[in-house]
Write a structure and sequence with these properties.
Structural class: alpha/beta
Order of helices and strands: HHHHHHEEHEEEHEHEHHH
Strand content: 5-15%
CATH architecture of the largest domain: 2-Layer Sandwich
Number of helices: 12
Distance between the termini: 15 Å
Largest sheet: 7 strands, mixed
Shape: globular
Length: about 325
């Protein structure tokens, strides 16, 4: 028999212990037969086993192994198991609520782990590029409306990275604590051509109220974003544009903040990609499916911190083998 503390089963069970975000206003039609928690548990399985489609998810759940029997039981409510159509519809809708769930769990983890101690309440923001599945859609073909190959994900887009060069794909926009423990506080996924400073305002609402500083690079040197941060009681510290060395007042302090930012967010992004095999192409196609997979991976990362903190395990080292064992 599979023990109750197997990594996969433990993380799926952990979803039932999480706080629920405020329920959205109920629309017209029949009330939902299944809670959103059920489909969130399925996303944990899909991320850990790299399952890109509902068809493959149901095929995996149908395997007669002790572990899958346990997981299948956790994905039923009142003795009922969703139909294929329900799985497809509800999993397609899940990306809409994932940013709020990541924000809620990020605030819960911050309260529980107290990463900042008495002071230094800073978070870092940046984007990291993910390659789209399949071929690339070159600019001249896109402008002409020509799709030369069926493998091309038409909802992805181009960006130019100083490190990766030109990439066709997506951007993950995470915010993480600047502390000994990297806690994702908010996250969003967009096509790769989205401007970082335009995505950032949407992440502010999910940040802990005690946050004092938000650290970013030159992409976030934006007056509108600075004003929105000020409204939220947050000081935006972003790298100044222009030739180096900067000689204006505060440059020495900003230099310290920049080192803290790069250490936190760049190391988190690399660790995240290594854990979830994100250095290659994503396993999904389309914005909604890719958002579900990538933000689902951020959510699983948070669940891992919650699980390991409860067992007094290291929160920075050993996360990849721990999840590979799932």
């Amino acid at each position: 028999m599979v023990p109750h503390d197997s990594v996969l089963v433990a993380l799926v069970r952990l979803v039932d212990r999480l706080p629920e975000p405020p329920a959205p206003p109920r629309g017209r039609g029949r009330p939902r037969a299944y809670s959103e928690r059920l489909f969130l548990k399925a996303v944990v399985l899909m991320v850990l086993r790299r399952i890109p489609t509902v068809h493959l998810l149901l095929a995996v759940l149908d395997q007669p192994t002790p572990e899958m029997r346990q997981v299948r039981a956790l994905l039923a409510e009142d003795g009922r198991f969703p139909t294929r159509r329900t799985w497809e519809r509800r999993l397609a809708a899940l990306p809409d609520s994932l940013p709020a769930r990541i924000g809620l769990l990020g605030r819960e983890l911050t309260a529980a782990l107290e990463p900042w101690g008495a002071d230094g309440r800073a978070a870092a923001i940046d984007s990291t590029v993910l390659r789209a599945r399949g071929g690339v859609w070159h600019k001249q073909d896109r402008e002409a409306g020509i799709v030369p190959h069926t493998s091309i994900d038409q909802q992805a887009h181009w960006t130019k990275s100083g490190w990766h060069g030109r990439v066709y794909g997506w951007k993950l926009h995470p915010v993480t604590t600047v502390a000994a423990v990297w806690i994702p506080l908010a996250a969003e996924l967009t096509p790769a051509n989205a401007a970082d400073n335009e995505v950032a305002p949407g992440l502010l609402a999910e940040l802990p109220t005690e946050l004092a500083f938000l650290l970013g690079d030159t992409s976030y040197q934006d007056e509108d974003l600075r004003a929105r941060c000020a409204e939220a009681g947050i000081e935006l510290v972003a790298t100044r544009r222009g030739a180096y060395p900067h000689r204006d007042g505060g440059v020495a302090v900003r230099r310290v903040f920049h080192r803290l930012r790069s250490t936190a967010i760049e190391n988190f992004n690399e660790q995240f990609k290594a854990i979830f095999d994100a250095h290659g192409q994503v396993p999904t196609r389309g914005l909604r499916a890719t958002t579900r997979h990538v933000l689902g991976a951020v959510f699983v990362y948070q669940l891992t911190l919650l699980h390991r903190s409860a067992h007094a395990a290291d929160l920075r080292v050993g996360l990849k083998p721990f999840l590979k064992a799932a």
